[in-house]
Amino acid sequence: MSLDFDSFVLTASTADLSEEPAAREHADAIEFRMDLTDEPLAVLEQYEGELPILATNRAAWEGGEWVGDDEERLEVLAEATQFDAVGAIDVELEAILDGDAENVLETARDRDVSVVASSHDFEGTPSRGEMVSTLTEAAKHADVSKLAVTAESKKDTLAVLAATEQVTAHGDRVATMAMGEVGSHTRAVAPVYGSKIGYAPVDAADATAPGQYDLETLSILASELSS
Ligand SMILES: O=C1C[C@@](O)(C(=O)O)C[C@@H](O)[C@@H]1O
Fold first, then answer.
1. Per the domain annotation, does 54 fall within a domain?
2. Is 120 one of the annotated active-site residues of the chain?
3. In whole angstroms, what is the distance from residue 90 CA to residue 30 CA?
4. What is the reported pLDDT for 1?
């Protein structure tokens, strides 16, 4: 199932693929957080859902929970691309720039699986110029460049939205959001400025990042604002 991100894709972000039927009503895809579950490849093999999957195997050094060797982490992510339901994978920009992701990127391209190159800032929000550079750099290596930052002020949220608009106007596909309470509204508003991916838990209690709306809420807000 392909995921091309030509228009906004709302993902139900989860470690539990059995949530797919509950997500179907509001989501366009599932973000499967492989790092948050045991035996993710076995789980993928048994997946019979309708929604395509964006597979993420987030490193501990990027805020995820994959414990163990990074080479193995990327290998497991590459193996996830063998399943038809996997339409996209998320690869950390840092791993790409370090040269560690060559195999997983090549495997994804061979199998026509889209790549999201992501980076996160859990401490704060860089300047608009720095965010534009990061997004532009990531776009050279992937179909979508994603940046999640932590907003501490409304000024920060405006900088994220401005960077989103600038890089989108330049012709790159981006996914952006400000984590944290102050940044919550950017999850609904960023798509207006071009952001192509939203992340939300089916149940608010299972959030995979700070400041996420639950899936139904983000679906309503994003579609009202973007229509
Ligand atoms: O990178 C992202 C974005 C995210 O961190 C968010 O802020 O919604 C949620 C993660 O599950 C996903 O992999």
1. yes
2. yes
3. 12
4. 72
Rounded Cα gap, residues 22 and 7, in angstroms: 22
Residue 84 CA, ligand 1 centroid: distance in Å:
23
% of the chain residues with pLDDT over 70: 100
Q: What is 145-204 written as a DSSP string?
A: EEEEEE-SSHHHHHHHHHHHHHHHHTT--EEEEEESTTTHHHHHHGGGGT--EEEE-SSG
Q: Fill in the DSSP letter of residue 62.
A: G
Verify whether ligand 1 is closer than 6 Å to residue 176 (CB atom).
no
Q: Is residue 85 very low, low, confident or very high in pLDDT (cuts 50, 70, 90)?
A: very high
Cα 116 from chain centroid (whole Å) = 7
> How far is the C-alpha of 129 from the C-alpha of 43, rounded, in Å?
41
Count of Cβ atoms closer than 10 Å to residue 124 Cβ: 12
Domain that holds residue 200: 9-226
Q: How much is the ipTM here?
A: 0.97
Residue 27's CATH number: 3.20.20.70
The residue count for the chain = 227
36 within domain boundaries: yes
Report CA(170)–ligand 1 centroid distance (Å): 24
Alpha-helical (H) ranges within the chain are 20-23, 40-45, 70-80, 93-97, 102-110, 128-139, 154-169, 184-189, 215-226
